[in-house]
Amino acid sequence: MNVDASHDSCQACQDSEATHLCEDCGAVLCLDCLESITTEYYFCTNCHRNLGDIRSNQKPERCPDCDSDQIGVGRKIVEICPRCHSTRLILVEDRRRELAQELRKAILSLQYGHLKLREFVRHFTSARQLLVSLRMAKFLHYKWLEDQLETIQEEIPALKNRIVSQAEIVAKQMAAETKGLMDYPSWTADQFPFITGVTNRITELGERYKLHVDETLQSVRARLDELRGHINGLDYYRREFAGFYRHSELEVNELPVCAFPRVRVTGSNFLKHDKATGTLYITNRRFIFIAKTGTLRKRTEVIFDFPLLYLSGIEEDGRFRKHLVLKLKQGDIKLSCSEQTQRVLPDYVEIAKRFDRYVQTDLQRVRRLEQHDVSATDARMRIDEMVYSLLSRDRHVSPSERAPRRIARTGWSRPAIERSPTMTAGNHDRFRTELEGILQRNDGWGIGPRIGASNTETSSLRQTAQNIENEIRDTIHLLRTGRIVPEDFVRRYRGLMRDSFEIRRRMEYYGDCRMEW
Ligand SMILES: [Zn+2]
Ligand SMILES: [Zn+2]
Ligand SMILES: [Zn+2]
Could you name the CATH architecture of 256-358? Predict the structure, then answer.
């Protein structure tokens, strides 16, 4: 038997390379040793649809597809396993590729770490962004919003560290499990069950890692969500205030507090318009009601506009359908509004009267917050590099050494040089030092893999990647300095990220020519 150990030789003739695997008894066989049986089947002579085996079916009258009655009988040769006579034969190569894909997928679960980090950072920056724009629009409520955002922002580096170092631990465990196994074209059929076992363990490591990532982000995520709820609330009032600016304006040092739409004035003992539906605006100085009036020619106008100081109290009135009664020096105004508004309006009036206590006075604070770069890019680079090392292990064979394998796959014997023991061992050692180095390195993460990328193709790709990185930085700068609108930024940024991804893919390809899965 002159066949390389990594090759499956046919279990029947013990000579040729096995290409088929019996899914029932596990035998690996060459094409010549497969037995075959001839089966007869009905088919439509018009559309060639197979209408089932002769043995197990009655002859159909018509074809269900084209309604033709021209039913013929065909014969086909089916290969069966000579050992157990099963027809469930698959190509060894297909199973090998399938197993390789499963193993790869299990390893890729490490990427969950930076995916979740990026998602979190995106939520954080979007909340921060919204707060900045609210502060600019003079919505200065809740000075503690900055405090909490700052606290979360300060935690982000630690979160990244925890997620990356856990990934390192898991990557090491995965490396130990898959040691010497990552050269998937050399897997033999009798290794398949073992590889399935390894894949299961890697999958479990990956699942545990995902849980760890979720746990790491859980509490901070909950806090951010709550914060976001408050910021969204302010954003709602800001949008409602658009109607205010069309008919009135803020005085010096006057700040918007809140706005309640769909409020109805149902009566008053001193107002000219004592029936109208509109929005009640409250600032730290005044309460203003703007509504549509007139039956024929409707127009929107200010119905009343009083200093907050005039408001001496808010009372509930009515037995069935409750109203709010605003008590003023001049008299009463009856309002009907949603239950929600009824519940919160008195509180908001109190807040508005003592708004100074709640206001953020340091507008630079949110600006400073905004200048911090909180991206998860560094974490992504590091985790991707770990994943890449895991996947590209044992795969450092030059294309010239690779060619004979193709020939060998077609059934010829293969030059012995390809998997000599010394070379395999050398590769493993080289990989180990490489992974060790990657895991210990804490700074200077460039784009894309470093492994094996030395020729001109990769260096030009690397240059392109660098250019894209610079352009991304410039684009962010443009947005921060207000020279492009957010829509343009999003469009440009997306395009750049797509390019960056594409380049990284190509670098991976050139970085290791044998990455073919
Ligand atoms: Zn054979
Ligand atoms: Zn069999
Ligand atoms: Zn037919």
Answer: Roll (2.30)
